[in-house]
Amino acid sequence: MVFSWLHLAIVLFLLGGLLFGVGPLILAVLLGPQARGGDLGMPFECGMRPHGSSWVKWGISYYCYALIFLAFDVDVLYLFPVATAYGSIEGWLPFVKVFIFLFVLGVSIVYFWAKGVFSWPRRINL
To answer: How far apart are CA 67 and CA 113, in angstroms?
Structure first.
């Protein structure tokens, strides 16, 4: 294999990208402040000392709901450009594509419902 200018450019761009990604991390470790203790370990609340406990434990159900919401929200966002693009196309193919997309979305909601993901468990106080 002959080493050409294209290979050199690819290697340089890979090294530059790696340096661009890892360089700030290395500089932060080397040049960042090294002080420990005091108010540095406290949670930040607008420059004021926090009131109460900041280490609140959230239930896993909250995160499941958040992930499901994000997944379905992003899926619904795909419908807006599709509706705009398919508005000027004639035929049944765009309708079938959107119907398949909505069908899969609906089946996934039914699946999550059957698995009990949407039922919020009551908190058990011990």
So the answer is: 15
Amino acid (1-letter code) at residue 58: W
> Could you read off the pLDDT of 53-112 as tens digits, one per residue?
656 666 677 777 788 888 888 888 888 888 788 777 788 888 888 889 889 888 988 998
Tokens encoding 27: 């500089």
User: Considering the domain boundaries, does residue 1 fall inside one?
Assistant: no
Q: Are 123 and 59 in contact (CB under 8 A)?
A: yes
**What is residue 76's predicted lDDT score, i.e. its pLDDT?**
80
* Residue 82 exposure: Cα atoms within 13 Å on the Cβ side: 15
Helices within 39-87 (DSSP H only): 60-77, 79-86
Residue 101: how many CB atoms within 10 A of its CB?
A: 14
Residue 62, CB-side half-sphere exposure with 13 Å CA sphere: 5
57 token code pair: 């434990």
For residue 21, being part of any structural domain is answered with no
Q: Into how many domains does the chain fold?
A: 1
3 state DSSP class of 97: helix
Q: Of 52, 69, 49, which Cα lies nearest the Cα of 112?
A: 69
